[in-house]
What does this fold into?
Amino acid sequence: MSPGVFITLEGIEGAGKSTVAAWLSQWLGERGLTVRLTREPGGTALAERVRRIVLERGSEQVSAEAETLLMFAARAIHLDNLVRPALAAGEWVLSDRFTDATRAYQGAGRGVEPQWIEALAERVHGDLAPQCTLLLDVPVKLGLARARARRGESDRIEAEAQAFFERVRTGYLALARREPQRIRLIEAAAPVESVREQVAAALQPWLTAAGVRT
Ligand SMILES: Nc1ncnc2c1ncn2[C@@H]1O[C@H](COP(=O)(O)OP(=O)(O)O)[C@@H](O)[C@H]1O
Ligand SMILES: [Mg+2]
It folds into this structure.
């Protein structure tokens, strides 16, 4: 059996990751592929508990370093218990966020040293990278307006100011320039229909390899 395909979705709040993830998993499923839709931080019962710790708005301080370590702790659990077994079973794993989010949020957004993040990434999943990362890019104002319209209560990271998300967006765009083969830029301010077309086009090589006609 050929190993599955690991696809990640990235972008700031309100970019449309969850919207694309739900549509894409169904769309791939309808084309005969076995898809595992998951998210980070979280994705397994234990990793979702770490997610609650990292996102809750409590009275204690959570430093950028603590946040980074919690993200990688959740990631290690997620990889061992869900991502690696699913890929080994030939499934397509679709993850709403992965390590690029740590690079963009904790790195570019909070100023955590990139070398330290890369050392953790190498240690936790040096053998494994997404085949394709869909970076949904929107202006910060639009993303935040969409995210606000979606729900009232924001979590600890969503509560950050616009300047923080500007740094995160800039960080994501820098990653895309560095790894243009892996990270596909999706113009996500566009209507949903256009976003879907861009996503399907970006995945074409893997769809073709899997014998899926689009
Ligand atoms: N291309 C789009 N055009 C307009 N609205 C969108 C688009 N994509 C998503 N939305 C809406 O914006 C909000 C945030 O989308 P969501 O998928 O939850 O973003 P994310 O998961 O990246 O935070 C949702 O209410 C969703 O319906
Ligand atoms: Mg989401």
The pocket of magnesium ion (ligand 2) is lined by residues 17-18, 96 (CB under 6 Å). The mean pLDDT is 96. The CA atoms of residues 78 and 84 lie 9 Å apart.
